[in-house]
């Protein structure tokens, strides 16, 4: 039988007694109307809250989607999905690494402020997360599935015996208490079954939140992830990478995994549609950080921070939109909470996108901020390079970027891909004096500059450092001041940049 709902707005009351009588009458009318149309009054209330599906790809730079202009990678499912909602071109994660980035998504705060800059740390128990608030304040059934979500510390043999004992003795892993359904690290082949398993456990009438994590396109890359493999010769190279056979081959393998991620995304949508339907579901697709190439993952340049953000909410978001407003990973949690009719936690520094999504008046961000800290679970030695340990902060406006490097003496090395053909050929070309000068200077200058400043309209590859130039002094000061404020308010442990 069709279900109907009545909604009333109370605008003014003459006394507290009148208020009490009116509210009582309204609730009675809601109950009567719900039963009259064959419904459950509790379900009638819950049905106003959207289900929320958050899908996260791994190491995915925003430029690498068909709808973003990449002519090599094939992403028909994500392209279609983007056309059904809104695509953001300037979405930036809070860090260019998976652990601190995911902390930003789940807390609505910077990785620095929630003490998640050492990479292998569990999220502190006193830091509240999006699924906890949805469950406690909104009655949501919540879950996480597929690839590791990275916020309970590393597992397996990546911890030494002392560290493992400290984690266990102090019960530092906490996500089994933060969500109702926890799948720690299932293989890709179980994507459909895990999503279906979660949905099958959602109590009748409850809204749900599910965070699905992909492996792709994380390094190491599998060129056979799609069939046929992409042709390295057909790839349009970004300005920050030289034209070398190894670079092209690495990119072909990387893009193939994005093609496979596109297929997995559709598997998730089909599973949700079959079990729960998609009409009342806010669906968000994003990346945790950018690609594992030089200037990408582990760096504060755009290829490391700028990730896809596609959002669909049928009946709420006008289809076919593309937005170039600045968005931070901090903004996802408050957006989801407000979409659920809840108030963000007071400690959240993210800015809700809900007014913008609904076509209402909104005030966009002026800046986004990001940090770089320790990477991976390895120990620090005299051979450690920037891929394993680097300390840096940045502020970015719509046009300019300011980077503050606190460990300029660390020899540069790309995260994850230093052993691949592309980087090895770049090192050989540098030693032979055959790299383009701007690229050679960017990756092989030692020590690196403490301050960097880029005009992203004139120099989208971020290869021409303008720090200290008189012609950009005013803008550089503006971004430096914004970064100083952010560092102070986040209780950042690094020394502040000189004013």
Automatic annotation (TrEMBL):
Q: What keywords appear on the UniProt entry? A: Hydrolase
Tell me if Hydrolase is a UniProt keyword of this record. yes
Looking at its record, which EC class is this enzyme?
hydrolase
Which Pfam families does the UniProt record give?
A: Sulfatase
What molecular function does GO assign, one term?
A: arylsulfatase activity
Sulfatase N-terminal domain mapped to chain residues? 50-341
Signal peptide (residue range) = none
The question of whether Ribosomal protein is a record keyword is answered with: no
Enzyme Commission designation = 3.1.6.1
The record's similarity note reads: Belongs to the sulfatase family.
Q: What protein name is recorded for this chain?
A: Arylsulfatase
Q: Please tell me the species this chain comes from.
A: Caulifigura coniformis
């Amino acid at each position: 039988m069709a279900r109907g709902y009545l909604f009333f707005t109370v605008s003014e009351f003459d006394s507290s007694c009148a208020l009490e009588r009116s509210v009582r009458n309204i609730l009675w009318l809601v109950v009567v109307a719900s039963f009259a149309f064959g419904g459950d009054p509790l379900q009638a209330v819950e049905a106003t809250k959207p289900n929320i599906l958050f899908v996260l790809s791994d190491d995915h730079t925003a430029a690498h989607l068909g709808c973003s202009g990449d002519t090599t990678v094939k992403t028909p499912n994500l392209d279609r999905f983007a056309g059904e909602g809104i695509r953001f071109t300037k979405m930036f994660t809070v860090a260019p690494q998976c652990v601190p980035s995911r902390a930003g998504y789940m807390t609505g705060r910077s990785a620095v402020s929630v003490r998640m800059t050492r990479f292998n740390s569990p999220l502190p128990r006193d830091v509240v997360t999006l699924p906890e608030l949805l469950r406690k304040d909104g009655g949501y059934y919540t879950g996480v599935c597929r690839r590791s979500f990275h916020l309970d510390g590393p597992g397996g043999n990546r911890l030494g015996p002392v560290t493992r004992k400290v984690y266990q003795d102090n019960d530092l892993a906490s996500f089994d208490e933060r969500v109702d359904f926890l799948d720690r690290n299932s293989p890709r082949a179980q994507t459909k079954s895990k999503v279906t398993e979660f949905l099958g456990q959602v109590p009748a009438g409850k809204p749900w939140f599910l965070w699905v994590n992909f492996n792709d396109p994380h390094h190491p890359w599998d060129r056979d992830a799609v069939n046929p493999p992409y042709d390295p010769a057909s790839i349009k190279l970004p300005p920050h990478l030289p034209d070398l056979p190894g670079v092209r081959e690495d990119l072909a393998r990387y893009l193939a995994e994005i093609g496979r991620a596109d297929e997995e995304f559709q598997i998730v949508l089909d599973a949700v549609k079959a079990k729960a339907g998609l009409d009342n579901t806010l669906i968000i697709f994003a990346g945790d950080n950018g690609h594992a190439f030089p200037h990408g993952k582990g760096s504060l340049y755009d290829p490391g921070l700028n990730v896809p953000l596609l959002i669909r909410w049928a009946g709420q978001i006008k289809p076919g939109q593309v937005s170039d407003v600045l968005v931070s990973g901090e903004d996802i949690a408050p957006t989801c909470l407000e979409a659920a009719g809840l108030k963000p936690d007071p400690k959240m520094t993210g800015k809700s996108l809900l007014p913008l999504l609904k076509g209402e008046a909104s005030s966009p961000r002026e800046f986004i901020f990001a940090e770089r800290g320790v990477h991976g679970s390895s120990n620090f030695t005299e051979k450690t390079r920037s891929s394993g340990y680097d300390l840096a902060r940045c502020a970015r406006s719509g046009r300019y970027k300011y980077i503050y490097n606190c460990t300029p003496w660390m020899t540069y090395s790309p995260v994850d891909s230093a052993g691949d053909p592309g980087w090895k050929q770049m090192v050989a070309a540098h030693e032979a004096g055959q790299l383009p000068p701007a690229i050679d200077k960017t990756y092989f200058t030692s020590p690196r500059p403490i301050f960097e400043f880029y005009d992203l309209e004139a120099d989208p590859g971020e290869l021409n450092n303008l720090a200290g130039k008189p012609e950009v002094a005013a803008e550089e000061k503006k971004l430096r001041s914004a970064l100083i404020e952010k560092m102070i308010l986040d209780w950042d442990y690094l020394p502040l940049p000189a004013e």
